[in-house]
Design a protein that fits this description.
The chain is built from 9 helices and 7 strands. The chain has a 7-stranded parallel beta sheet with strand order 3-2-1-4-5-6-7, sandwiched between helices. It is globular, with a radius of gyration of 19 Å. The two termini are 25 Å apart. The mean pLDDT is 92.
Length: 298
């Protein structure tokens, strides 16, 4: 059955690929991005051209995850045009690289604002409608850094993605009795095919960087090169989009709680399996095992 889907941060990377793949699968897809008449104007044009060329229902909508007003307006637009909203894909994110000490608290807060609070703003805009209609899917695009290998110089991003994962896990139980399903898609370190590293931020505080350069010269390049070396030859960022399409296509109530797409195999899947098993066992111990799957409450 065709669904109405919104994907945040869909101007490039995982978001753009997923929006196109879901549209090809027959869904009505809203590729959400900010500043559609400014820096993302070309991406809006590209999405429209893609929709026309492939004869798919791919649309764009203005949505800045840093603004509750923007999130509310985007959801209102979707409801006015499509009449409903079935799937929310939390994809928007921002990466920063550099020695952790060099980032100011305000810079760490900004990373958290995009990667964590942005999902909360979108949820507050969308969930009242999903709850009212009595069904839906919230799909979170996480990161293997939450529980897998964590190379240095990426700490603010890793910390924010870990917080987002914790939020997703709690939301899953809190939405189950509204028959709203949760899936966490967990990409690994794809070093090509996305703009994460190219557009990532750097710390503004420069005074401590020379000390780190003395001991860790060229570390960020080394990390990128070694991650790339771990990836198999057939690793393709489109695998993340394919996984999202498959999750959406899976019948309601049968979707996996977590899906890993990790070419470097950094251990996240193994650790997450233990954590998710313990979560399920604990909810059963306290008599809340009905929260492990979406369902209608009589």
């Amino acid at each position: 059955m065709s669904k109405v889907i919104v994907i945040t941060g869909a101007g490039s990377g995982f978001g753009a690929l997923s929006a196109r793949a879901l549209a090809r699968a027959g869904h009505t897809v809203y590729a959400a991005m900010r500043d559609m008449t400014g820096r993302n104007a070309d991406r809006v044009t590209e999405a429209a051209a893609y929709a026309a060329e492939h004869r798919v229902d791919l649309r764009t909508v203005e949505l800045d995850v840093l603004s509750q007003e923007s999130a509310d307006a985007a959801v209102a637009t979707i409801l006015a045009e499509a009449g409903r909203l079935d799937v929310v894909v939390h994809n928007a994110g921002h990466m920063v690289t550099g020695p952790t000490e060099a980032f100011t608290p305000e810079e760490l807060a900004a990373v958290y604002d995009t990667n964590v609070l942005g999902t909360q703003r979108v949820n507050r805009a969308a969930l009242p409608h999903l709850r009212a209609q009595g069904h839906g899917l919230v799909l979170w695009v996480g990161s293997t850094s939450t529980r897998g290998g964590t190379p240095p110089y990426l700490a603010p991003y890793f910390a924010a993605k870990s917080a987002m994962d914790a939020l997703a896990v709690s939301y899953a139980a809190e939405l189950a009795r509204f028959d709203i399903e949760t899936t966490i898609v967990v990409p690994g370190s794809f070093t090509s095919g996305t703009n994460h590293f190219a557009t990532g931020g750097r710390p503004s505080e420069q005074t401590v960087i020379p000390a780190y350069e003395e001991r860790y010269a060229g570390l960020m390049d080394q990390v990128s090169q070694r991650l790339a070396a771990l990836a198999p030859a057939d690793a393709d960022v489109s695998q993340v989009a394919d996984a999202i399409v498959e999750v959406v296509a899976t019948p309601h109530g049968e979707r996996p709680f977590r899906v890993h797409i990790d070419p470097a195999n950094d251990g996240s899947e193994e650790v997450s399996a233990v954590a998710d098993r313990i979560r399920a066992a604990f909810l059963k111990r306290i008599g809340l095992d009905d929260l492990l799957a979406p369902h209608q409450v009589a």
